[in-house]
Structure formats: C-alpha cells, structure tokens
Write a structure and sequence with these properties.
five-stranded parallel sheet, elongated, Rossmann fold, 2 domains, binds ligand C2E, TIM Barrel, single chain, 14 strands, eight-stranded mixed β-barrel, alpha/beta
Length: about 400
Amino acid sequence: MHISKTDQINILIIDDETDMSEFVADAVTAIGHNAVAVSDADDFVRAYSTAFDIIILDLFMPKLDGIEIIRFLHENRSRASLILMSGKDKSILHSASELASERKMEVLGVLEKPFTIDQLEAVIGKFIPQKHRPQDPPSALPTEQGLRRGIEQREFFLAYQPQFDFKTGKIAGVEALLRWQHATRGLIHPGLFIPLAEQSGLINPLTEYVLEEAMAQMAKWRDYDITMSINVSPTTVVDLDMPEKLDDMIKARDIAPEKIIIELTETAIMENVSSYMDILTRLRMKNFNLSIDDFGTGYSSMQQLVRVPFNELKIDQSFIRQAITDRECQAVAQMSLSLAHGLNMHVVAEGIEDQSTYDWLKELGCEIGQGFLMSRPISPEEIEERFLS
Ligand code: C2E
Ligand code: MG
Ligand code: MG
C-alpha cells in the first residue's frame, strides 16, 4: 500500500516491553506511517508533543501506568486518538477505554496482547485526520428559543416502534418515540432536544403532547391486543396529580390501563427513589404498567430494585447490541434477565439488530423484543399496514 506524505500519521508507542514497542513500531512503519517508540515515563515526557495523531498505549507499566498517561494527555489537552493495549484482563481495557472517552478522548480501539499486524492495522485504519472530521458548529444544537418556537408551530410528531412477543412472534405493543420535524433543519432526534427540554421546563408541554397523541392513537387501536409504551421524564413524575390525570385520560377514551406502559429510565429513578414512590405506587394501583428503561446503565441496588413497583424491565440496547460478540455485555444482559424474572418482572430486550441475538434472547426466555431487525420506529399508518392487518 502506498501512503502519500500528507496522509502519513504520526504515532507514538508507549510500552515498557521493548520487544513489543519495536514490533508495533516496525508494523506502523511498514504500513507507511511515522512511529516513535518509548519505553518509560521519562522518555514519554521528552518525546510527547501535540504533533502525534495516535498514541498506542500499554496500560500496565511499572513506573507510569496507562491511566496516569491518559490523565496527562487530558490535562495537556491532547487531541491524539488512543489505542489501548494490554496483556491482562480485558475488563480493564474496557474501563480504561471508558475513562478516556469520559475525558472526551477518542479511543480507536483496544488490543489484547498478543495481536496480529492485521489487527493493529485495522484499528489504525479507523483514524480520521482532524481536517476530515465533520465539525458540528455550535449552532447545530437546538436552543431553548428554537424549542419553544417548535412547540408553538406544532413541529413535533410521534413515531412508533413495534415490540414483539418472542413466543408467538406477533406484535405485542408499540413504543411512542418523539420526533421534531424542524422547519429548516429537518428531523431532530430526541437525544438532542429532550435534555434541553428537561432543563428549560419545556418538557411539560412536550409530555402533554406525547400523552394526548399516544392516547388518541390507542383509542383508534382499542380493538387490537397491543400495549402502548410512553417515555416520561423524571420531572414529570413529581407532579402529584399525574396518576389522576392519566386515569382521566384513559377513562375518557375507553382505554384499559393495562394497555399503557409508563417508561422511566433507571438513572432517573434511582437517583431519587423515595420522591417517586408515591406517584409510582399509585400508578400501579390504578393498573398502569411501569417499566424501567435503559436498565444496566444506572446504579440500582438490589434493595432499591425490590422496593420500586415496576413490572417490566428493559435491558439497555448497548448490552443487547453486543450480547453475542462481547462476553461482558452478554453477562449483563443475562444477569438482568434472571434478576427481572426473579422479581416477577417481564423483560423487553431493546436494540435487537441481528438474527443470532434474537435467537439467543428467545432461548433465554426473554418475553418481548424490540429492534431494527424487526422494525425501526415508523408511522402509525405503517404499523397498521405491516403489523395490524
Ligand atoms: P429509549 O426510550 O431507550 O428508546 C429506544 C431508542 O432506541 C429509540 O431511539 C430507538 O429508535 C432506538 N432503537 C430501537 N431499536 C434499536 C436498534 O435495534 N438499534 C439501534 N441502534 N437503536 C435502536 P430514539 O427514538 O432516538 O430515542 C432516544 C431516547 O429519547 C429514548 O430512548 C427516550 O429515552 C427518549 N425519548 C424518546 N421519546 C421521548 C418522549 O416522548 N419523552 C421523553 N421524556 N423521552 C423520550
Ligand atoms: Mg423507552
Ligand atoms: Mg431504552
């Protein structure tokens, strides 16, 4: 492979095992990039400069460990991308990788020793030079004013993602997902505006819209045996009248409360369990279903989990998406399933993207599946055409 001078990448390799750093340096040079290899802390400090595009780092070194180097790079505002290597426990590679990501450093990949030149080349191949990176202008983020205008102009709508019963393969319900069709920017996903809505209080009119719209839809689907899952923000659940309001809404539309599933994220609830207990318990007493969303990303303790009156648990998609390929994700998914079953909750697996993951979950006794393999979020008309006719 020929790499022109301007495409050459500058790579710094830090490993106390000289054999290893030389092996990596030779491999890097062989594929046409520049390599500098160092084997201890002093050499590193001397060799380090902002000219390096990639830093290949051994996590375990006697004098200065990889974590300290990550801290150093962060403090020195390094823009280099990282490749982490280790001959030890893979879980440490994961933790270190997360630590670096939290510090806004890009991790191209992790390499478990021993690795091949092909594996090394594949990870280096993920590098995108700064000049080719898409720059998100700050204006790309919606503003509070923009959000307010969007609400006034009624630019919001709901997409519905179907959920399927593993036993029958049939549709069991839908999850309502909010979308913003911005006048000039096009479609904006909730990840970009929900946090802003929560901070600004604009989540209240938005939630009101979602509840109205989802309930109206459910009234039309009254004769089908499907549930409707609705995401609510923690700020909404502090409204003490919420159970009564919801009850009034379903009664006015002749919808059974058992068909409504209120989803709250694990992080949201566990931070403040006691303040939500009142409302959550009353919702359950009125026969609404309660679902704990994005399970595995928060920090529930067993004690908290048995206290909250949830009857559904949704395993976070980050674990499901990698359940087949990553041993740790698989363990989290499996544990969550047995924990939920032990506590009499049924389980929804979210983020099923391939058949092998689907088969694995079915085998494990997971009740409900949701994911791009079966369907993306779609319009209510499409739900009817594809799944209700
Ligand atoms: P969530 O409640 O966990 O919703 C599931 C998200 O996972 C949706 O993203 C869905 O499109 C995505 N997803 C489902 N299956 C797959 C898959 O197989 N692969 C991949 N890669 N993704 C999959 P979306 O619609 O962007 O929503 C993101 C989050 O925004 C939601 O996460 C939810 O927390 C929040 N959200 C959405 N609508 C509302 C709402 O009306 N109110 C509130 N408070 N939050 C909402
Ligand atoms: Mg959800
Ligand atoms: Mg989720």
